[in-house]
């Protein structure tokens, strides 16, 4: 046999559920042991005795007051339970509404994310296409400018060659004229030198005295 200490606890004291008398009685009642006929008869007699004692005590004033107090507390407990049930129902409703709002917000966020991803991909594709177009235009413009520059360089080179050829031809003609002028000047100088020699000879002849005749 196990002895259990039973005493009154203050409201400030915390008594574990397993240490409560009702729990221990329930544990004994729920103990899966074989019940003999004597035990069954004793339990029946105990229930009958308890019922008789309870029925006899209903007419007593303290018992009636305790019963009324218990009924009042039961009604209060029922009202509190109903209020708690309403509160739990309201909380469940708010929780469900909050879950629904969260689910809706998540769906909206997912939709916005998917839309943003689609817009990003579209913008990237448009930017890539625009970049390719600008590159193609830049390449074409560069090729055109290179062709124009090459044509301009070729034109300037042709004009320069033509001008140089003309100047070379003019210089050749000027050199020919200068050569002719030099030859003519040389001829004139030789002629003048011969004339000067002839004049000098004549002067010498004139200055030489003529011998007297016999």
Notes on the structure:
This protein has 3 helices and no strands. The chain is mostly helical and 214 residues long. It is rod-shaped, with a radius of gyration of 70 Å. The mean pLDDT is 84.
Oligomer: single chain
Bin the strand percentage. Answer: under 5%
Largest sheet: none
Binned, the helix content reads over 70%
Radius of gyration: 70 Å
Mean pLDDT equals 84
Q: List how many beta strands DSSP finds.
A: 0
For the terminal residues, how far apart are their CA atoms?
213 Å
Q: Given the C-alpha coordinates, what overall shape results?
A: rod-shaped
Q: What class would the helix/strand composition place it in?
A: mainly alpha
SSE pattern? HHH
Parts with pLDDT < 50 across at least 5 consecutive residues = none
Can you count the helices?
A: 3
Give the SSE map:
Blueprint lengths: L20 H9 L7 H21 L3 H147 L7
Which descriptors apply to this entry?
single chain, 214 residues, mainly alpha, 83% helix, 0% strand, rod-shaped
In short:
With 214 residues, the chain is an all-alpha fold. The protein contains three helices and no strands.
């Amino acid at each position: 046999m196990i002895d259990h200490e039973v005493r009154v606890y203050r409201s400030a004291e915390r008594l574990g559920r397993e240490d409560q008398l009702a729990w221990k009685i329930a544990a004994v009642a729920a103990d899966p042991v074989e019940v003999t006929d004597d035990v069954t008869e004793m339990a029946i007699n105990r229930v009958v005795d308890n019922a008789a004692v309870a029925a006899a005590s209903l007419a007593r004033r303290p018992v009636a007051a305790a019963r009324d107090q218990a009924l009042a507390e039961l009604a209060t407990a029922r009202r509190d339970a109903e209020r708690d049930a309403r509160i739990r129902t309201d909380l469940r409703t708010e929780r469900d509404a909050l879950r629904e709002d969260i689910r809706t917000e998540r769906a909206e966020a997912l939709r916005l994310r998917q839309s943003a991803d689609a817009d990003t991909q579209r913008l990237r594709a448009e930017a890539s296409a625009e970049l390719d177009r600008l590159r193609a235009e830049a390449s074409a413009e560069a090729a055109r400018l290179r062709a124009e520059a090459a044509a301009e360089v070729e034109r300037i080179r042709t004009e320069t060659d033509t001008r140089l050829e003309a100047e070379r031809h003019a210089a050749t003609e000027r050199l020919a004229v200068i050569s002719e002028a030099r030859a003519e000047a040389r001829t004139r100088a030789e002629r003048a030198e011969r004339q000067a020699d002839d004049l000098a000879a004549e002067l010498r002849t004139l200055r030489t005295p003529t011998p007297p005749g016999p």
